[in-house]
Amino acid sequence: MDIQVEGMSCQHCVKSVTEAVKSVASEASVDVSLDSGVVRIDGASEEQRPAIQDAIVDQGYEIAAG
After folding, report:
1. Domain ranges within the chain, ordered by starting residue
2. 2: closest CA among 24, 21, 23?
3. How many whole angstroms separate alpha carbon 6 and alpha carbon 59?
4. Cα–Cα nearest to 59, from 29, 24, 27
5. Residue 44 contacts residue 1 (beta carbons within 8 Å)
6. Angle (nearest 5°) at CA 18 between 65 and 3
7. What is the pTM of this model?
8. d(CA 45, CA 21)
9. Could you report the per-residue pLDDT of 5-61, keeping only the tens digit for each?
């Protein structure tokens, strides 16, 4: 699944978002693109999307609408 995240700008952001995703889906593969703001998650179910998004928001980032 892809999630559009706003507010990421550095490697600390990548680490924070990756850890947030893995707190919900520990086995997931996470690829964060600072250029596009897309967080690509492989190995997580669509049912986990709300919890993953909440975990990212809890780290201080915003989920883009759409």
Report:
1. 2-63
2. 21
3. 12
4. 24
5. yes
6. 20
7. 0.94
8. 12
9. 999 999 999 999 999 999 999 999 999 999 999 999 999 999 999 999 999 999 999
Dihedral sign of CA atoms 60, 64, 65, 66 in order: negative
Burial (Cβ within 10 Å: 0-12, 13-18, ≥19) of residue 26: exposed
Helices (H), 1-66: 11-24, 49-58
CATH assignment of 2-63? 3.30.70.100
Asked if pLDDT for residue 65 goes beyond 90, the answer is: no
Position 64, amino acid: A
Compute the distance between CA of residue 5 and CA of residue 14 in angstroms, rounded to an integer.
11
The tokens describing 51, both together, are 């919890």
